[in-house]
Design goal:
Blueprint lengths: L4 H9 L4 E4 L8 E6 L5 H9 L6 E4 L1 H6 L21 E3 L9 H11 L9 E11 L11 H11 L6 E5 L11 H11 L3 E3 H12 L1
Parallel strand pairs: 1-7, 3-5
Antiparallel strand pairs: 1-2, 2-6, 4-5
Length: 204
Amino acid sequence: MFNSISEAVDAFRKGDFLVVLDDESRENEGDLIIAAQFVTLEKMAFLVRHSSGYVCAPLSTERADQLELPLMVPNSTDRHGTAYTITVDYREGTTTGISAHDRALTCRKLADSSCAPSDFMKPGHILPLRAVDGGVLVRRGHTEAAVDLCKLANLEPVGVICEIVRENDGLMARRDDCLAFGKKHGLPVITIDALVEYMRSLKN
């Protein structure tokens, strides 16, 4: 039914999307997650086509600090405590910022350690998210899952995520929807609970 974390990390390392489900008592949704450094125009188009289109880029606290990405608001009232930062667009080679090309480029550059804060325009069309230090062992969110997966795969600690929606009605995809989606598109499907257990096993 679900893939193992090791299988998922192997696919993730090769630039594949993963379908990642959180707890039914939390958001109860599935996100498409990919390492930011592998996002092409085609992959961004796929992501937007099958999701809410609200593309976020989780990144480590260290990377967010390097890029001088402050929190969007000082006192967030988000019900899940998601650490939204100010939005960005990469400065060179983008036009509107919202096209699949432009959003893919911005995501790749967020993962490019040679880029500086001045390389990005603010606000923009990609929404970086600050992952909590300690990852899913501290906060069981898709933000932390994305960064943990990048670290497990020895990639830059920046991911790209978006919520999967159902084709027929646009509502959020739940467990069975996500399993069917993964099967249809040949994508590994995992849960954050399984990722938590895997991370715990590495610490023991």
